[in-house]
């Protein structure tokens, strides 16, 4: 996990909904693989300071995530709170999520088109190299959708990091979490994944050329393609 992604996961939460936001923030990071199975969370005191919450609130959130199977706690030397390995099985999206899937797609479109435009302006060579490496990795994961999806999420988060905007990193991470709830419910033939990754590669080429218009155009095609697949395969 990169420093920017870690900053987004452990950024302060709003005090009015501190418990709920902490559960959602950590649960989403686990679901997306940003907190990998077996990862040890920072100590409670450090987590409280990072999230800006009371220890009692943090403990309630950690207990809820342990009860749901996302975390496990061990005592003694070498103990702590760890991401469960294996993670709990994904649940199908709720009727509410299915009913609002187009709104989720619209929100993601608004966020990630802005990310593409800014990344084309601000990406450093190291960012482009990191994205190209993920594209190469994805080429080898076309038959393993869970691994493909985790790498796909990393691609979009690293792209957001290239904007140098922590808020866009956080928004992208949240959008990816909401999309995962929907995407996990449809089949993923290798041909669809191969086409999707070809778009990733074109996006990297646009960033390398600092071509903002091309980056936005490719990202729009990429996101609209996902929307079309959802429209055809979701049980709505």
Tell me the name of the CATH class of the largest domain.
Mainly Alpha
**Unreliable parts:** none
Please tell me the CATH architecture of the largest domain by its name.
Up-down Bundle
Radius of gyration: 18 Å
Description:
With 236 residues, the protein is mainly α. The chain has 2 domains: 3-83, Arc Repressor Mutant, subunit A, CATH 1.10.10.10; 95-233, Four Helix Bundle (Hemerythrin (Met), subunit A). The chain has 11 helices and 2 strands. It has helices spanning 3-9, 18-32, 44-51, 55-67, 95-99, 101-122, 125-139, 145-161, 166-183, 190-208, 212-233, and strands spanning 71-74, 80-83. Strands 1-2 form a two-stranded antiparallel ribbon. The model has no long low-confidence stretch (mean pLDDT 88).
Based on the model shown, name its key terms.
single chain, mainly alpha, Four Helix Bundle (Hemerythrin (Met), subunit A), two-stranded antiparallel sheet, 11 helices, 2 strands, 68% helix
């Amino acid at each position: 996990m990169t420093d920017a992604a870690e900053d987004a996961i452990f950024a302060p939460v709003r005090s009015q909904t501190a418990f709920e936001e902490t559960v959602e923030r950590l649960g989403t990071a686990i679901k997306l693989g940003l907190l990998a199975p077996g990862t040890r969370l920072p100590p409670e005191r450090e987590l409280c300071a990072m999230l800006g919450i009371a220890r009692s609130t943090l403990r309630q959130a950690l207990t809820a995530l342990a009860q749901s199977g996302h975390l496990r706690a061990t005592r003694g030397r070498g103990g702590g709170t760890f991401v469960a390995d294996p993670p709990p099985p994904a649940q199908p999206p709720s009727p509410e999520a299915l009913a609002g899937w187009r709104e989720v797609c619209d929100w993601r479109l608004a966020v990630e088109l802005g990310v593409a435009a800014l990344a084309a302006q601000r990406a450093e060579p190291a960012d482009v190299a990191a994205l190209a490496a993920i594209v190469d990795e994805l080429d080898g994961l076309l038959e393993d959708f869970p691994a493909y999806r985790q790498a796909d999420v990393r691609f979009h988060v690293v792209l957001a990091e290239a904007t140098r905007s922590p808020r866009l990193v956080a928004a992208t991470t949240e959008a990816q979490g909401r999309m995962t709830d929907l995407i996990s419910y449809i089949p993923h033939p290798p041909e669809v994944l191969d086409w999707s990754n070809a778009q990733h590669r074109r996006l990297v080429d646009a960033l390398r050329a600092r071509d903002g218009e091309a980056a936005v155009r490719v990202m729009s095609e990429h996101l609209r393609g996902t929307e079309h697949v959802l429209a055809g395969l979701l049980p709505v």
